[in-house]
Design goal:
Layout (H helix, E strand, L loop, with lengths): L3 E4 L1 H5 L5 H8 L3 H12 L5 H11 L5 H10 L6 H10 L3 E9 H4 L9 E5 L18 H15 L6 E5 L5 H6 L2 E5 L11 E3 L4 H6 L7
Helix pairs in contact: 2-3, 2-5, 3-4
Length: 211
């Protein structure tokens, strides 16, 4: 049976940062977004409120800004190599993230089979964001189930990679998980833990013999 590898983005594929913070840095609004990140991690706002607030903050965002962020973001090494190896082994990989869809979906060009983020309008924004489209920790599990149906696997065939409280529900729903540069929220929950800047080394922890 093939497996489905489910990757978080912020703090996992991106080392020590989030897509919203990197986007806001391009606009000179990093401090404002860091404050919003802290408010959400502390439970003072939820994903819908967060999505609405960063959408307003990014009123001047352009496609050039997004491209620059994607090219210069602090990605882990060998992401594309891991996804190519997963594909060559007859398995599947997907990114499921609370970050904006217009950023997450760019990873499709790197060979991931599916990429799901909080639904945002296209850049530059000409319409408001629908807060109902913001993903949550629980929604990650729902998306994972949809992906299982798409690829013909079950939760029992899934491997989750994440770093924070937004990954707790998914870690609890699948049999194998890898905490990547994780915070205290995932202590004791993950099957494996990895600290470093190379995704290949994290993937090696769950790589099947002969693959």
């Amino acid at each position: 049976m093939a497996r489905l590898h489910l990757f978080d983005l912020d703090g996992t594929l991106l080392h020590g940062s989030t897509a919203p913070v990197e986007i806001s840095r391009q606009l000179g609004l990093e401090a404002e977004t860091v404050a919003l990140d802290r408010a959400m991690s502390e439970g003072r706002i939820g994903p819908p409120e967060y999505a609405a607030l960063v959408h307003d903050l990014w009123a001047d965002l352009t496609e050039a800004h997004v491209s620059a962020v994607f090219e210069t973001a602090p990605w882990l090494a060998r992401i594309r190599e891991v996804w190519a190896e997963i594909t060559d082994a007859g398995e599947y990989c997907a990114v499921v993230s609370l970050s904006p869809s217009f950023f997450v979906e760019r990873l499709l060009a790197w060979g991931v089979h599916a990429a799901h983020g909080s639904r945002f309008p296209a850049v530059p924004f000409t319409e408001p964001v629908d807060p109902a489209g913001a993903l949550s920790a629980a929604a990650k599990v729902t998306v994972a189930d949809q992906l299982c149906a798409k690829f013909g696997v079950t939760r029992a065939d899934c491997v989750a990679y994440g770093d924070s409280s937004s990954d707790k529900d998914l870690f609890a729903a699948v049999p194998i998980s890898v905490a990547v540069n994780a915070d205290a929220h995932l202590t004791g929950l993950a099957t494996y833990s990895y600290a470093g800047r190379d995704l290949w080394d994290a993937h090696e922890l769950v790589r099947l013999p002969g693959s």
